[in-house]
Design brief:
- The complex is a heterodimer.
- In chain A, about 0% of the residues lie in helices and about 45% in strands.
- In chain A, strand 5 and strand 6 form a beta hairpin.
- Chain B has no helices and eleven strands.
- Chain B is globular, with a radius of gyration of 13 Å.
- The N and C termini of chain B lie far apart (about 35 Å).
- The chains are: A mainly beta, B mainly beta.
């Protein structure tokens, strides 16, 4: 399984864009990149995912490099409620490990007034 | 839809006791997962299932057993609880390998 590397913590000013990086240099061709976040001790919440192309939804944008070895989650206008731990994971869509997912320690994003 | 539910929400065990955690989903999802999260750490995969009647080991399977007799339920068992198993346990489900996971609220387990 591909592993991911994220910075342990980041700060962002309220109203500014938050750009969270993730390195997944050993990603395989059938592995999706997923982003989740966890607020306090709640269960993680899905944000966005992608395979090759950049993706955007109502919460965020996902930029995946052409070689797929890294990605960036963009929260366009961060609010105080976006303070959370953000997890980048890769998960195979096929093969013997289809569906297996491994979380790292994530990035703690603190949005400051 | 209730989504993913977990029973119980809290539990305190003594070393050596056994218990079963229940995860239920009403979304007809094929895949189900059990994770544990220790204080200040990320989630670690214990076991998962890609369909009714199937189970597979994750990163930290030792000391745990699972069963998926019905599609909507995924049970996590601790046969002989140890203090090292004190943790928050999260269950999740997803429709398929290319879909997002939906998480339950967690079970907070303390083993004395």
């Amino acid at each position: 399984d591909a592993k991911t590397t994220q910075p342990p913590s980041m700060d962002c000013a309220e109203g500014r864009a938050a750009n969270l990086p993730c390195n997944h240099s050993t990603i395989s061709g059938n592995e999706y990149v997923y982003w989740y976040r966890q607020i306090h001790s709640q269960g993680p919440q899905y944000i966005i995912h992608g395979l090759k192309n950049n993706e955007t939804n109502e919460m965020a944008s996902l930029i995946i490099t052409e070689d797929r070895k890294s990605s960036t989650l963009i929260l366009p206008h961060a609010t105080l409620r976006d303070t959370a731990v953000y997890y980048c994971i890769v998960s195979p869509s096929g093969g013997t490990n289809a569906g297996k997912s491994t979380f790292g320690d994530g990035t703690t994003l603190t949005v400051k007034p | 839809n209730a989504g993913v539910t977990q029973t119980p929400k809290f539990r305190v065990l003594k070393t050596g006791q056994s218990m079963t955690l229940l995860c239920a989903q009403d979304m007809n999802h094929e895949y189900m997962y059990w994770y544990r999260q220790d204080p200040g750490m990320g989630l670690r995969l214990i076991h998962y299932s890609v369909g009714e009647g199937t189970t597979a080991k994750g990163e930290v399977p030792d000391g745990y057993n699972v069963s998926r007799l019905k599609k909507q339920n995924f049970l996590l068992g601790l046969e002989s609880a140890a203090p090292s198993q004190t943790s928050v346990y999260f269950c999740a489900s997803r429709a398929g390998a290319g879909n997002e996971q939906f998480f339950g609220p967690g079970t907070r387990l303390t083993v004395l």
